[in-house]
Every structure is written in C-alpha cells, then in structure tokens.
Amino acid sequence: MRTTGILPDRDIAALFKSGALSSARALDDDQIQPASLDLRLGAKAYRVRASFLPGPAHSVADKLDHLKLHEIDLEPGAVLETGCVYIVPLMEVLKLPPDVAASANPKSSTGRLDIFTRVMTDHGPEFDKIPAGYTGPLYMEVSPRTFPIVARTGSRLAQIRFRKGHALLGENELDALHRHERLVASDEPNISGGGIALSIDLTGDSNGLIGYRGKHHTGLIDVDRRAVQDRYDFWEPLYNRGRRELILDPDEFYILVSQEAVHVPPDYAAEMTPFDPLVGEFRVHYAGFFDPGFGHSAAGGTGSRAVLEVRSHEVPFILDHGQIVGRLVYEHLLSRPDTLYGAGLKSNYQAQGLKLSKHFR
To answer: What's the predicted TM-score (pTM) here?
Structure first.
C-alpha cells in the first residue's frame, strides 16, 4: 500500500465524508472522476478590471471589493464575453488534512473552447496550486478568449486533483513503466525533463484534415449543452496541402493533435506540461488532466492521441510536422481507482484522434 500519490475516486469521496471537502449542493452523480473532482461554479460571477492574485496578505474577497466592476447572477445562466475577466466563487470548499495538497487544471472541453480558467485560494501566491492543509473557499478566474459562452451555477469548467507527498515519476521510472506498459506508440520514446515528449501531427487524417482554427464574431456556446452546435459555424478546417507545415497567425486559436497515441495505465495519472519556452514563439495551452485508463485497452481505448490547443504570440510561427510541443508527465496513484476513464463513465475523449469539444456535432 502506497503512502504517497494521487488520491483515487474512493479517497476523494472519503474527503467529503470526513468534511475535508464540502459543498453548498449535493455532488453531481458523475462529478468524481477516476483521479480528480470537477469543480462547479457558484451563484455569482464578478467582472473585474484585470486578473490578480490575492497574495499572502489578502483574501480574494478583499481584492474583489475594489477590483470588481459588476456582479452577475449565474443562477439563470449568463453570458460571459470574450476579452473579459470574471471571478467566480466555487461551490466546493476545502478543509484539507495537513498531508494533502491539491492542484487544478481546466477540463478538456474548457481548453478546447479556448476558455482561460485558473483556480485561486485566499492568501494564495500562485494559481492552480492549493497547499497542504488549506482551509477556505475556492475561486475561479474565467476569461473566454475566442467564443462568448453561456455558463450557470453548477457549470463545470475545471477540475482538481489531490495528492499526498511526492508522486511524480522520474526518467528512469518512466522508462521502466513504458517498457512494461507502452505509454506511447513508440519503441524508443523521447524521455527527458521528467516527461515523455509529444510532437505535432501535420499529415492529417484520411481526408488530409490536420486541425481547426477558431472563427471570430461567432454565436454563443452554452458550456452545458452537448452536440448542439454546427462545427463550421465556429471553426475553419485546416488541411495538409503537401508541405506538412502550418503557419500560426498571431493570437489565432488552433486545435491540433499529437503524432503519438497516449496510454495512461490504471495505477497512474498524467498531465501535459510545456516542452520548452525557448523552442518558439507559440504557446500550447494544455487543458485537463489525463485520468487513469485514458487510452487503456481494457477501458475502451487502444491509445488516444492528445488534442492540443495552440496559440502563437507576437509574430507568425511555422510549425513543422513532428515538432516537439509538450511533455507528458506521469504520477502514481495511492491505489487503483474503482472506475477507469472510459469504463462506465461519460468519457468524451476515449480512443480519440483529432476531436473538437463535446459541444459540436
């Protein structure tokens, strides 16, 4: 029995039973994932002048007192506009044990809509990191970048992972795990910097489709409604025209896919991190955690490629086929979860290739 690692689903449920996690409303049936918990928006959103961190001397409420521009009622649903920053108190409240810390990340569907989200705590010096033993509320910064959205009380835009101690696998452990479990579809993966390097695929599918670019001045996307939007109202498809390269225009948003198929074994969880900020003038906005069972054959997958949300900054940048754009880091779990990703869950991206978010048909 491990004493360090990511908490699986049954241990997350136990946090609620012990009072380490509480909420103003009963949990949704599918809110607890194999190794994470979806976080829900509360009743109000506050539009603010600018993003901020409270820092050690302040609570988030202190900062909101002089930074908020207006208050929005989320109960009936409300429009959150592109280019604006909103702070939303979350339903879930923490009273963590002294040996349990947490980290947050946007859900996969949130990233694929180019909704920028970060979680804050009172007196927090950084985003998305919750120290061990933290007691207090959680807040989410929400900023739609490409499409205006409709969100409401209970909408789930981000998720949180809980961990005891050090769980990250080193390079030697990763290499051994790959040889036993085949983490990516490669006999000799590029393992460096504590992760497995992933590269971009610009060859395309059987029709030559390599990705999508977000359109401007579109209609609204309701974050809680599935398969209701025509993809071509919001996305311009991009095709391989024989050169296996793509010029990223500044501040445009792209959905692309990794060359490698990814596998997360049942006793592990994974997360994407930037490969190297010096490799080019672009940013891959990695959203969501990779849960245990992602791409696992026993859970309905045979390796699933990583969908990448890409944005160039300042200048146009040429991406070449096979260019490394990110690292997949792995952590071990305290124990195997009761349910794997893709097995009996509403898992939208199991066995995926290039795929838009669940909102499009």
So the answer is: 0.93
